[in-house]
Fold U6 snRNA phosphodiesterase.
Amino acid sequence: MALVDYSSSSSHSDSENDEAPSAPPAKRRKHSPGSGPQPNAPSAPSSSESGLPPLPSAFHDLYASTVRHSVVDDPALHQGRKRLIPHVVGNWPSHLYIEWHPLADQHEKLVQLVCKVNEHIGNRAKLHNFLTSDLGAPLPLHISLSRPISLSTSNKDVFLDKISSALHASAVPQFSVSPKRLKWYKSPDSNRTFLVLQVASSQASNSTGALSNPELMRLLSACNGMVQSFNQPILYQTKETDSADEAFHISIGWALDLPVDEESNKALDAFGDEDFHFVKSWKISVPGVKVKIGNVVSHLPLSTGAASTASKGLSKSLFGL
């Protein structure tokens, strides 16, 4: 059989491969700052070139829980905080809420605001924030639509199905809210005082100075009605005459044993500084409601249709009775 006649260059290359094993590629020699000319290092890609697509919203639901250190209530593990609902095997701590992930510049501005208020209250109390984790990562914030509640193993799945149906029946479309005021909120269940941003519907007129939240009121009505049917405490509307329109808020900080008095209220004037004027123009979108049962978070989307009018019966009672 005749041999294939390769060109001389190919023969030379093949013979080199046959005679000696291939050596690893030579490492590039490091140069000291004064050792002569160096090749230009590749420039780092710009933010527009290296920008990654945003994570899907469902991703955040997978890692919404912190690590459990103990099933026993130990305030030393939580900066002096006490568990409102004691841990009971077979019960699932649950919560209904609207989640907000501030943009980077919004997060930075909120951190500055909390620091400013902390400077004003001085050594009366230490103001902790809800904005950043122990590892320095930005944290999501929320608007509560329920108190902390507890569901049994036997009814947690039923609750999720029913609250999903109730929110769908409420026909609340997607909407947005805006921060309008900075307030202190004294917890009725603990010795904590919260620094909160009161919110109002971005579409509502506030010519009278009152905060209006027609969409949040309808969502709260659906949530409270369902929570009450499972023998759990409702949020805000403990009496028929109670109004929750101005109660909706986003907690951004908290302190232990801080009295709400003239001195602490003066610290809230920081919100009126020029640095924070545009915070009131932020639009916080509300695409749906989160249902957290144990460490599992479900997202219940709101409809994308045109906004509908509020229920006529809301002025009489939270549950339309």
